[in-house]
Design a protein that fits this description.
Length: 404
């Protein structure tokens, strides 16, 4: 294996000994290590590749004069992100590793988010023992728990540093996933849309396509899919389950943010979009509900998951979001609507069945969508076999056209 280039991020005003120890351990495997200093208090020590002043760049004085640590960190973050982007663009960065507490992890992970999936990313920190979602956002960042704090070098912390160096070397010896764009189709799923998803997977695999499913769970689902679309992993997208948008509108726990529905449109990929589970807003356990939420129509999916039926106002807003995000002229989009229900609990006789409210979404979207976006309505429920068959016929026709 050829020598790899590793970026080691640390707050060198507090973690210099730890960073230099980790650097030596990584270099024992034959790799080259560049240290980038994201510390705030003191000038960088000798041996740092990118000094604090270089990282802060034009914002150095702003950082020094900041009234709070948070403000100062925001200026360092800008510079870190810029350097990470440049190094990767110039093919001078093969892996990113960091050691630190919560402040250092926040900065380092911001830099890691700039790298594609498959580039090794390791965060060595005791906060790995807790909720890491605010740091990883569901991306492929390995959080290595040191058990003890990383304030000094001792027999336990140095063991974890050596272990991290060995793990990093192993990751660098593993080839990144191939971007099999020609035959890979992204697809979103949820338990209440599973029959539709399963049938689509079956039909596409029979045609030689590889289906990459994403569960619609916010930052761990749709957000990651949007990132991989931009990284050119897919030839097409079947967005069967768009319930994250309902959470965005109704305050649910699985919102994936305002970037949802955009990447495939911007890339011009064949893109079939379905309002799957769009009528449900995902909430947490019963004891976390607000009084106003308890007054709404609820479906208790499990002890830890309560679903709230989207009302007329929310469904209207969802229709407007579909129009806003899908109407970009760069897109190659077809919206397919099952008029007999959007999820397993949104069919006749089930608790979320309310065709009049669903029709508000359909009208708000269908009649305002520009002509460059096809909108097709089907007299089916989303989990009807016939609807899944129609979706696959639609995406295959779009794929065939895109090849010419």
């Amino acid at each position: 294996m050829s020598k790899k280039q590793v970026l080691l991020c640390a707050t060198m005003d507090t973690k210099a000994k730890q960073a230099f120890y980790l650097k030596d351990e990584i270099e024992k495997y034959g790799h080259r290590v560049m240290i980038i200093d994201v510390g705030l208090r003191r000038e960088s020590p000798p041996g740092v590749t990118f000094t604090q002043k270089e990282v802060a760049g034009q914002y150095f004085l702003n950082m020094q004069n900041s009234a709070t640590r948070s403000d100062a960190s925001s200026y360092i973050k800008i510079g870190l992100v810029q350097i990470v982007r440049r190094l990767y663009r110039e093919k001078r960065l093969d892996a990113f590793i960091s050691v630190g507490g919560s402040g250092g992890a926040t900065l380092a992970c911001a830099g890691m988010h700039e790298l594609p999936v498959g580039v090794p990313k390791i965060m060595i920190t005791p906060i790995a023992a807790g909720n890491v979602l605010p740091y990883t956002f569901g991306e492929d960042i390995l959080m290595l728990n040191t058990i003890v704090d990383v304030q000094n070098l001792n027999f336990l912390s140095t063991f974890f540093f050596r272990q991290a160096a060995a793990v990093l070397d192993a990751m660098l010896r593993t080839e990144a996933p191939e971007r099999t764009k020609a035959k890979a189709v992204a697809m979103t799923s949820f338990g209440v849309t599973t029959p539709c998803v399963d049938r689509c997977v079956e039909l596409l695999e029979a045609q030689g396509y590889e289906v990459i499913p994403f569960t619609s769970r916010g930052v761990c689902g749709g957000r990651i899919m949007e990132k991989l679309i931009r990284e050119n992993y897919f030839c097409a997208v079947m967005d069967i389950t768009t319930s994250e948008l309902a959470d965005e509108v109704g305050g649910g726990i699985y919102s994936s943010g305002p970037d949802r529905l955009r990447a495939a449109v911007e890339k011009g990929l064949p893109y079939v979009v379905v309002p799957g589970a769009l009528e449900m807003i995902n909430l947490g356990p019963e004891d976390t509900l607000q009084p106003w939420q308890k007054e709404r129509t609820l479906y208790r999916h499990s002890p830890g998951s309560v679903k709230m039926r989207a009302n007329a106002e929310e469904m209207k807003r969802l229709g407007e979001i579909f129009v806003e995000r899908l109407s970009d002229p760069r897109g190659n989009v077809c919206v397919c609507i099952p008029t007999r229900g959007f999820s397993e609990v949104n069919r006749e006789g089930k608790i979320f069945y309310d065709p009049q409210v669903d029709d508000i979404f359909i009208k708000a979207m269908k009649y305002k969508m520009p002509s460059n976006v096809k909108v097709k309505c089907y007299d089916n429920h989303i989990n009807d076999r016939e609807f899944a068959d129609a979706l696959v016929r639609q995406i295959l026709s779009m794929l065939n056209r895109s090849q010419y």
